[in-house]
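EI: anyone free to look at a 495-residue chain?
SC: sure, send it
EI:
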Amino acid sequence: MGITVKSMGLVGLGMVAGVAASFQFSALAQRADGPLPLEELRQLSDVFGLIKTDYVESVDDKKLVQDAIAGMVSSLDPHSVYLDKKAFREMRESVQGKFVGIGIEVSMEDGYVKVVSPIEDSPAYKAGIKAGDLITRLDGVPLKGLSLDDSIKKMRGEPRTKVVLTLSRKGEDKPIIVPIVREEIRVQSVKAKLVEPGYVWLRIAQFQEPTVDDMVKKLTALYAQNPAIKGIVLDLRNDPGGLVPGAIGVSAAFLPKDSVVVSTNGQLADSKQTFYAQPAFYASRNGGDPLARLPAAVKTVPMVVLVNAGSASASEIVAGALQDYKRAIVMGSQTFGKGSVQTLRQLTPDTAVKLTTARYYTPKGREIQAKGIVPDVAVDETAEGDGLNSLRLREADLVKHLANGDEKDARPVRHDELEEEQRILALAKKQKPVEFGSKDDFQLAQALNHFKGVPVKMARVDTLDEKRAEDILVKPETKSDIKPEDKKAPVSKVK
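SC: here you go
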């Protein structure tokens, strides 16, 4: 997975309705290794002929072939997919941080499209679409039975055209009808501000081509405004991933030069690579080192990284690298767990196959796939609890997901956990959506408490057995610093 002009790494949460997907650009397809299965190919040819001669109505040859390719690729795992001309064009546009759509990150669940997260400031976000919503119909037409790719295509369209979504939401008895006008969405990759004197909130919503340059500009401006920065909160919550060079560049900004950021491993020789905190792995095509403009103080300033179940792929690369080097405290909840790399192989100038080709690993060799990053300090989304975030879909929940070598059989669900789920759903109905970076952002407030040496209110543990709670909520290296004062709301002061 070399990062060159012709080959650029990209990872992300998965197929998104007008958002970044995950792939590695490569213009050359690979030849089959070994003889082709001629008997099976004859069967495929026979079925093609039968459809042409016997089907009730005429079917276009090109459509049959494309659908056969799409079915073959999508049967592998949730992130491998065939991209036709339109989908390929939209994919390339999304890498640049702009696209036409409604602005939601999605996955499949029980044959329906499930909202992983609405993109901030998008039409879907403004219309009140929530994480966990199931999209059952588009313009009154049921989505049941359609592939995720086909559903996404139906959500795409021209700017200023309307689409009507029918939603099923937990806790609501009736379907919710939401009309949304499609827009060209420009995702603002980086936001930054002084939330208090001396403390910076740096949010990365998605890793794109301009992410590293935008981060450098914003941090440089903040340091010019207030040179005595005492702490940086790197907010990766609901960040679905994006370009690997962006993730490497963001990590390199805070790590020692030449540090290992991430490694990959797969069948092909070029999928067995290690990526370092060096300009060759993150600098844009224009050349030069954008990080050279950063104040030297960013290498040593105390850091907290905020993550949640919507933090995936490239954001997990960053969180994992900073955690492995103990450069930052990771705070929040366990991440999504997408630890696979997709490679985009062009079939024609206008079509391609996005194929999973490798797994990626943190600097210490930890596998992220189907597990994610476990925070050093678990903190709920709000003071009342984690809300729907605790019930969000993760990689391990996806059908046909790549297994993690450490995965065990599913743990049986206890009765008290079912009661806890009902409690969370009831609580979530009363909660307002969290505005990241606002004065009401509970997790951000806990990060600031950590910088100031004030007790941090940790996640609830009353529904977990003591051993499991200890393993999940506190990393071994921080246990000696934890002084729980209350079982339902343990308090931590991490040095």
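EI: The first strand starts at residue 10 and ends at 12.
SC: 👍
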